[in-house]
Design goal:
two-stranded antiparallel ribbon; Membrane-bound Lytic Murein Transglycosylase D, Chain A; alpha+beta; 6 helices; globular; single chain; nine-stranded antiparallel β-sheet; 15 strands
Length: 339
């Protein structure tokens, strides 16, 4: 940069020298125009020097600054929408599977986005691939972007096949349903079992006697919300007490009204399919953080996202899915079932 300025000074001298000599020799009238010329020449030289001075180089370039991430805890930068437990979340704020805080008995709903696979989704929710297939009537691993998957927290027994075991004997041992075992494990009735194979028995039971703690009441440790839930049918009878996922069976005539047990929002409304044995069913999310489930329906009268009020008719009683007669299987997830 210094050599450039010296060149400008030298060229200025050779230009101004003759101009000053002319100004002395010419009449006074011409002085104004000469000095005006000289003034403009100095301005031009100054501008040229300033321009050279500001020319960017390694000495005067501004330092680059790294951009700040809007969310340092983000697990993804995709702008997809994920729904967990009926709540819409940006995938940028969804915590990793290891840190998500969901109750074990809560039904979750997940919207498939780009890059998802069934094994990855299963790992995210801590369930098996078969659990997702079974609950969503899937025969393979094919899923599509935007597809809504219901994630059922399946309770049951995992059995390792030993010598002499058959599917029928396993079902009998754990009081499971043979057809349900076949469907869940993607087997047919003629399947040959090998020693070491693992079979899952949905809603299976192990017959053991458990002593009650001293001084304990033996009641459920789940919270009680007295008066919060209303009976989901009018009349009828209870045909089975607490079983499965905190559910009871209430029977009445085919097509009887099914009522919302409490105010809330519909997060699942299945109008076709086996759906893990529930058949046609509805799940409602409530303001106290609990969920209620209404299954084996003959007709579903609400849709996902609908807000419902306590006592509103949401469906009709039926016998779809794993059912041996007309009834409503009613579950409360996250609290004691008062019925």
């Amino acid at each position: 940069m210094g050599s450039g300025l010296n060149a400008v000074k030298i060229s200025t001298f050779f230009i101004l020298g003759p101009a000053l000599l002319v100004s002395v020799l010419l009449p006074v009238k011409s002085e104004a125009s000469v000095f005006s010329f000289i003034s403009s020449l100095f301005s031009s030289v100054s501008a040229s020097a300033e321009a050279e001075k500001e020319q960017p180089n390694s000495q005067n370039l501004a330092l680059l600054q790294a951009t700040i991430s809007p969310n340092l805890d983000a697990s993804s930068t995709k702008n997809e929408i994920v729904i967990v437990g009926g709540t819409s979340l940006s995938s940028e704020t969804v915590t990793s599977p290891e840190t998500k805080n969901l109750s074990d008995d809560q039904i979750s709903v997940y919207v498939v986005h780009s890059g998802d696979t069934l094994p990855a989704i299963a790992k995210m929710f801590g369930v098996s691939v078969n659990t997702i297939r079974w609950a969503n009537n899937l025969s393979g691993n094919t899923i599509t972007i935007g597809q809504t998957l219901v994630i059922l927290p399946i309770s049951g027994i995992q059995h390792t096949v030993k010598s002499g075991d058959t599917l029928t004997s396993i079902a009998k041992q754990y009081k499971g349903d043979l057809d349900e075992i076949l469907q869940y494990n993607n087997l047919n009735i003629d399947a040959k079992l090998s020693i070491g194979d693992v079979i899952v028995i949905p809603d299976g039971e192990i017959s053991v006697s458990v002593a009650k703690p001293a001084g304990g009441s033996g009641k459920s440790s789940q919270p009680t919300y007295a008066g919060y839930y209303m009976r989901p049918i009018v009349g009828g009878v209870k045909t089975q007490g607490i079983h499965g996922n905190n559910g009871v069976d209430l029977a009445s005539s085919y097509g009887s009204n099914i009522l919302a047990s409490a105010d809330g929002q519909v997060i699942v409304a299945k109008t076709t399919g086996w759906n893990g044995g529930y058949g046609l069913y509805i799940v409602i999310k409530h303001g106290n953080g609990t969920q209620t489930l209404y299954s084996h329906l003959s007709k579903v009268l609400v849709g996902v996202g609908d807000s419902v009020t306590q006592g509103q008719v949401i469906g009709k009683m039926g016998s779809t899915g794993r059912s041996t007669g007309v009834h409503l299987h009613f579950e409360v997830r996250g609290a004691r079932n008062p019925f």
